[in-house]
Design a protein that fits this description.
heterodimer, A: 404 residues, alpha/beta, Aspartate Aminotransferase, domain 2, 2 domains, three-stranded antiparallel β-sheet, 42% helix, globular, B: alpha+beta, four-stranded antiparallel β-sheet, extended
Chain lengths: 404, 160
Amino acid sequence: MRNPLSDTIVKIPPSGIRKFFDVVSEMKGAISLGVGEPDFDTPWHIREEGIYSLEKGRTFYTSNAGLKELKVEICNYLKRRQNLEYDYNTEVMVTVGGSEAIDIALRAMLNPGDEVLIPQPSYVSYVPCTVLAGGVPVIIELEEKDQFRLTPEKLLEKITPASKVLILPFPNNPTGAVMERSDLEAIARIIEEKDLFVLSDEIYAELTYKEKHVSIAEIPGMKERTVLINGFSKAYAMTGWRLGYAAAPEIILKQMLKIHQYAIMCAPTTSQYAAVEALKNGDDDIARMKEAYDERRRYLLHAFRELGMDCFEPYGAFYMFPCIKRFGMTSDEFATRLLQEEGIAIVPGTAFGDCGEGYLRVSYAYSLQDLQRAIARIRRFVDRLNGESSDGCQTQKTGNSPEE
Amino acid sequence: MREKILAVIEKNSRISVKELAALLGENEAAVAAEIDQMEQEHVICGYHTLINWDNTDEEKVIALIEVKVTPQREMGFDKIAERIYQYPEVTSVYLMSGGYDFTVMIEAKTMRAVAQFVAEKLSTIDSVLSTATHFLLKKYKDHGTVLCEGPQDERMLIVP
């Protein structure tokens, strides 16, 4: 029998997070801080709208780009929150989660050999989607000293004549980093000068804790170069509904829609009806959940710093990215030991790119009680590590560790 | 800061002052002082535990009594309420709008004890015109918390 497989897909390594997932699944009684989705249920009035649409027998396909009512509400929302004007008819489409939008945007824009600039640490799908679309991923390694923001210097360093698309994953999973208006303005000039396009993944746009989120599309000259991706998963706690959207210049959106039309048909109808309700009457829910995340964020930041774990203050999403370099272990070793010794599952930073080495991604999409319990166990673990290194058992210690 | 403190401790009174301060991004001493102040002003009236007695072996009967009264000179609603809430078996008393005047909740060991309370103590108060006693069969949700099921996290343990 011939090899049934595509070389392209076989060469793509399985998600690094998967390996860890398998280990965690076998652990009984483990507390996980590894979940990248809200702990809240979808607000009841939104669920009810989904149920209601089923009761009314609205179980048919919608048009490829999505329900008109939903597209109109998406445009209203983008106008209301970001002051961005899109035409519901030609510049917006509803997708199966933000994930589909990432995939089809890249497929619509890339020719073989086009380079895609991907800042890391970042979400796991940009590199494989680029490869599947025939593009060449070029990684930009972000650093804690820049608060994991994309600086003009870092961007310029990786631009070549083949560069075509820049992915902007902010607010960022896994670091919690945000790009403020001035940060965006600084890179916008380069984007224009080098004639790049931007895929802006703004799925965490509602979860910022310092200033209101700014989209790159708001910066003059950028909207016509930007595919803005957002969705309902994080803002409204609707991950399982699988619903996102893209807003982009007609020339790009038209081609994205073609892929969507042939590969997907349309996003789930029930979810679309629920999403209309979310956009119409969900602003208070967002505010309520965001306030809860913010409390936990402050609590965790305080707790980690008290443990002597360096941690820059994240202003977005629901992740902390504490540094563990002073313990002289790799992220993988630290996470594995923490899991085995204390039953705490935290994803090593390396799952989000090599430059995540020395960090952990801690999710605070958990109740405060869960976080308190987890912190108590982490404290025990860190105390033990400190004991080991002062006993001299730990030989490969980094020099800059402030002893507690 | 007051409202923020209250919003948190209304749901979780066991949180330490230190944790509360971290959570709110406020100074620890200031938070402690504010709580003290609120206790003195009787804004904070107590710290209780929400118990689902159905999951214990303890037998308890809870009744809700609708009470109609006639306020008289020198004996307004507040005075009548005071006569009612002094009884230790009475757990709450509310003045109501609508078809009756007070909702009185009482807790006792047996139904007989409730009956005895209504017949001998409540009904005999001069201003009380009538009572209607309802026994509580099951508590599903109390103080915003669903009692019949524990919180369950059905998410996968690791999600990118």
